[in-house]
């Protein structure tokens, strides 16, 4: 019984769809990977598969609580960055907080998200993130146990330096 459909040409290296990528890694990391497998690709796959069970699935948007307060943590996507009055503040691990300009209200932000979803000009990943934020805001708005507040965070932006001739 053949589990993997094979055709003409080279057989699949990992037994599933894959593609070539170029990556730059520090020499010490390359040395450690070579200790796992002489084939760099196989060494990377081995590490990822070992950690698969240990790594929790990252949701596109979720609530992160601290004490009696909570914030929405998102995976940054371009569709969010395109919404006027929205700035994503990186917090590490490929996640971000949503910062709204003073002129942007939370209900207006929620409506902008719904409109962006309705326009449909978003990728699947962007759609998942926007829909998750909309659902969090909707549940919070309807909850009798939670108060939704806008807060100010301090964001530093570097000025562009003019080149001197």
Sequence-ordered SSE layout with sheet pairings:
Layout: H1 27-36, H2 40-51, E1 61-66, E2 69-74, H3 78-81, E3 86-92, E4 95-100, H4 106-119, H5 124-142
Antiparallel strand pairs: 1-2, 2-4, 3-4
The gist of it:
This protein has 165 residues and is of the alpha+beta class. It folds into two domains: 20-55; 61-142, no CATH class.
Question: What would you note in describing this structure?
Answer:
- With 165 residues, the chain is an alpha+beta fold.
- The protein has two domains: 36 residues; 82 residues, no CATH class.
- Helices cover 36% and strands 15% of the residues.
- It is built from five helices and four strands.
- It has a four-stranded antiparallel β-sheet.
- Helix 1 crosses helix 2.
- The mean pLDDT is 86.
Number of domains: 2
Proportion in helices: 25-40%
Percentage of residues in DSSP E strands: 15-25%
Mean pLDDT, to the nearest integer, reads 86
Treating each run of at least 4 consecutive H or I residues as one helix, how many helices?
5
Instruction: List how many beta strands DSSP finds.
Output: 4
Q: What is the molecular shape? A: extended
Along the chain, the helix and strand elements come as HHEEHEEHH
Distance between the termini: 71 Å
The residue ranges in which pLDDT falls below 50 over 5 or more consecutive positions are none
Largest β-sheet summary: 4 strands, antiparallel
Structural class: alpha+beta
Strand arrangement, largest sheet? 1-2-4-3
Radius of gyration: 22 Å
Salient structural properties:
165 residues; alpha+beta; 4 strands
């Amino acid at each position: 019984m053949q589990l993997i459909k094979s055709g003409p040409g080279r057989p699949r290296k990992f037994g599933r769809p894959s593609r070539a990528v170029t990556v730059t890694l520090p020499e010490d990391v390359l040395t450690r990977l070579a200790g796992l497998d002489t084939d760099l690709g196989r060494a990377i796959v081995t590490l990822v598969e070992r950690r698969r069970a240990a790594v929790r699935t990252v949701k596109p948007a979720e609530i992160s609580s601290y004490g009696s307060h909570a914030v929405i943590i998102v995976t940054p996507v371009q569709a969010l960055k395109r919404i006027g009055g929205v700035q994503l503040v990186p917090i590490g691990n490929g996640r971000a907080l949503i910062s709204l300009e003073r002129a942007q209200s939370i209900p207006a932000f929620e409506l902008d998200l719904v409109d962006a979803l309705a326009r449909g000009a978003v990728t699947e990943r962007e759609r998942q993130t926007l829909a998750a934020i909309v659902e969090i805001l909707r549940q919070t708005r309807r909850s009798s146990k939670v108060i939704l507040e806008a807060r100010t965070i301090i964001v530093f932006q570097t000025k562009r330096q003019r080149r001197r001739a």
